[in-house]
Amino acid sequence: MTKAALSALIRPLIEPLLPDWVEPHWFATHEEALEVAPQAEIGWFDMYDQESMKAAITAAENLNWLNSIYAGLDFLPLDLLHERGVTVTNGVGINALTIAEYTVMLMLAHAKGYRDVVRAMDRKEWLLDSPGKRELAGERVLLLGLGAIGKLIKTRLEAFEMEVVPVRRSGADGSLRPDEWRGKLGEFDWVILAVPSTAETVGMIGTDELAAMKPNAVLVNIARGDVVVQDALVEALQSKQIEAALLDVTDPEPLPEDHPLWDLQNAQITMHLSGRAQEKMFQRSADRFLANLERYRAGEALEPVMDLKLGY
Q: What is the 8-class DSSP label of residue 48?
């Protein structure tokens, strides 16, 4: 029997379908996770508290395969997992569809001033003109990050007749190479961040990058809060150096109540909800885990496997 430490959060979706060679050990609390972790060969240690997840995974000294619903696992001890030879499958692509839709929603809401329309409705005020007159068609988008989410964003924005220029290492198909995009920032109306949080991407948008953007540029961040130097962004928004920032992510999260971003009219904050704006997240993750169990049993490659050195 193969022992598996599994979060009770996913239990209703996978327990009836587990093969008979898996011996499940369910946990619902931090203490229970620490108790079952040392014996587990397979682990699904997702918890709401990141420190609890790290502690359980550190205690799982016999772990061979770690699974998670989360796409970004940069908060885990990746070096330790690599040293132990653990295969990690993450949630890349699980939330891609809803995040891509959320990105389009944010952009349309800003372009048409929809936040002000809703506020007028709450006041029962009949507006005589649209508070937003921007059209997406014909505008240029710089897309940083062409993974599962970025690819879906690209096709959806192209359906709005936008020109989407991604960043690729190859520079193929009209894309920009990683050493080119900073010199082209002034050519784009929208800059979308859909990159993983790694040593290479942390702080990639700072004072210099914001200064290089067009005055009507809109920054859209659905990646991680730390890929933007937040103090520099606040200054750029306060001085109206750029038109706006649409932020599904911030640094830190939750954003403190007294943080200046809350009060800026040219900032929209959506509390990292983009991946949760769906009903299928847990089902998709459960289906993927069960399919990977069969691959694991057969000695086949699991999907998708995280590169622990790159961090995604």
A: S
Beta pairing class for 42-44 and 65-67: parallel
**Among 213, 161, 172, 171, which residue's Cα sits nearest to residue 192?**
213
Among all residues, which ones are annotated catalytic? 224, 253, 272
Range list of H helices, 47-147 = 50-59, 78-84, 96-111, 114-122
Q: b/e string for 177-215 if b means 16 or more Cβ within 10 A?
A: eeeebeeebeebbbbbbbbbbbeebbebbbeebbeebbe
What is the phi/psi pair of residue 142, to 5°?
A: -95, 120
Alpha-carbon span 34 to 44, nearest angstrom: 12
Which residue segments constitute the domains of the chain, with CATH numbers given?
2-94+279-298 (3.40.50.720), 96-276 (3.40.50.720)
Please list the rounded mean pLDDT of every run of 10 residues in the chain (312 residues). Answer: 96 97 97 97 95 97 97 93 97 95 98 98 98 98 95 98 94 91 98 92 97 98 97 98 98 96 98 94 96 98 94 86
CA distance 144 to 193: 5
Q: Is the pTM of this model over 0.85?
A: yes
